[in-house]
Amino acid sequence: MRVIVADDSVIVREGLRRLLEAEGHEVVELLTDAQAIPAAVARGQPDAVILDIRMPPTRTDEGLRAALSLRAAEPDRGVLLLTQNPVPEYATRLLASGARAAGYLLKDRILAPRQLSETLGILAAGGTVVDPDVVSELLATRRRDDPLARLTASERAVLQLMAQGLSDRGIAQRLFVSVNTVGTHTGSVFRKLDLPASATDNRRVLAVLTYLEHR
139 falls in which pLDDT band (50, 70, 90)? Predict the structure, then answer.
């Protein structure tokens, strides 16, 4: 496989080159600057590009932006982003561009025997590779941001039936509770979802929309 490596650390660049060549891959070019990636890709026509997220000049997200640009131009070319620390936002931005042939790994992960070569093989086949630590962070973030997690089981059951269009009386009959109990749960749902109480806002509709978005 023909590969371009972009990283401002000479140790990382050379380490990746040796790992790749040991596995039979051809390193087309080694780059230190994300801005040089488009021209290098045009010259070398690599099967995959491996790049660090934090690169000059600001060392923030230049690598990510370069990866998104590459994917917009040619979605089937493998792009593997490497990072020192898992940043769920970056993984989300990468995968939002299309999950095909995209990878996001911690740098420590590629030091495992054959890990790098196997990852490139997955990308070449159109697959996706996301570091387990990043996945854990993504799930934790989703749990923290999920407003439905604030609800009790009874409140979720009421909201689910509300989303099906049942009235309070219909919900009460389905759950074998009183209408007053349903009203109590409904009021609690509104409060926990931080829904506005003004007369112009239909909190029932807003609650259902929240449920549909996060279920």
Answer: low
Look up the domain containing 75 and give its range: 2-144
**In a 3-state reduction of DSSP, which class is residue 176?**
coil
pTM of the model: 0.67
pLDDT attached to residue 138: 66
Rounded distance between C-alpha atoms, residue 149 and residue 142, angstroms: 10
* Tokens (6 digits) for 186: 């409904």
Q: Has residue 200 got a pLDDT over 50? A: no
Bridge partners of 128, per DSSP, are 102
- Residue 193 sits in a domain whose CATH number is 1.10.10.10
Statement to judge: residues 78 and 165 lie in one domain: no
Element containing residue 101 per DSSP (H, E): none
Number of domains in the chain: 2
Are 116 and 181 found together in one domain?
no
CATH number at residue 17: 3.40.50.2300
DSSP 150-163: GS-HHHHHHHHHHH
192 within 8 A of 147, measured Cβ to Cβ: yes
DSSP at 34: G
Are 91 and 164 part of one and the same domain? no
Question: In the sheet where 78-83 sits, what is the strand order?
Answer: 26-31, 2-6, 48-52, 78-83, 102-106, 128-130
